């Protein structure tokens, strides 16, 4: 029994000292998540895990002014007004790579998502908006 306890402590200590030995919360979430084909809406913790693991193209569909005021790090700003129904985005030409969409509340991302599914994108997810995003935003310094 002492031997098992010591081994458990050693393994736990290694996971703490060397995080690559530990499974992250994002890994666990993504192990349990299957992205459906077409358009879908997902929880923000799933979106955060996908972003953290670079599992898609992150697109902010708000205006450039809104984007500059604060956006998710790594996001590309493509305003919904510039997304045409059925057209491929030059910033995301691979139709099989997931698109992770957001705006302020999720309404504009829904519109953009439908246009992008009509264009042939296989995986388009909307995770709402920055108004409820709890993982931090960055601002452009202009």
Could you characterize the architecture of this molecule?
- 36% of the residues lie in helices and 15% in strands.
- With 142 residues, it is of the alpha/beta class.
- The protein has one domain (23-129): Oxidized Rhodanese, domain 1.
- Strands 1-5-4-2-3 form a five-stranded parallel sheet, with helices on both faces.
- Helix 2 (25-31) packs across helix 3 (44-52).
- The N and C termini lie far apart (62 Å).
- 27% of the residues are buried.
What is shown here, in short?
With 142 residues, the chain is α/β, with parallel strands linked by helices. Helices cover 36% and strands 15% of the residues.
The number of helical runs is: 5
Q: Please, what is the oligomeric state?
A: single chain
CATH-defined superfamily: Rhodanese-like domain
H/E element sequence: HHEHEHEEHE
Overall number of domains: 1
Q: Give the overall shape, derived from the CA principal axes.
A: globular
N-to-C span: 62 Å
């Amino acid at each position: 029994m002492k031997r098992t306890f010591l081994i458990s402590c050693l393994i736990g200590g290694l996971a703490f000292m060397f995080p690559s030995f530990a499974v992250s919360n994002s890994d666990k979430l993504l192990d349990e998540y299957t992205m459906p084909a077409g358009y879908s809406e997902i929880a923000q913790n799933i979106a955060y895990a996908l972003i953290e693991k670079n599992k898609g193209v992150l697109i902010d569909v708000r205006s450039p002014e809104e984007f500059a005021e604060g956006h998710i790090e790594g996001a590309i700003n493509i305003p919904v007004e510039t997304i045409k129904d059925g057209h491929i985005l030059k910033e995301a030409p691979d139709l099989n790579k997931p698109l992770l969409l957001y705006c302020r509340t999720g309404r504009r991302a829904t519109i953009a998502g439908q246009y992008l599914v009509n264009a042939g994108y296989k995986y388009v997810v909307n995770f709402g908006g920055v108004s409820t995003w709890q993982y931090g935003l960055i601002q452009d310094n202009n």
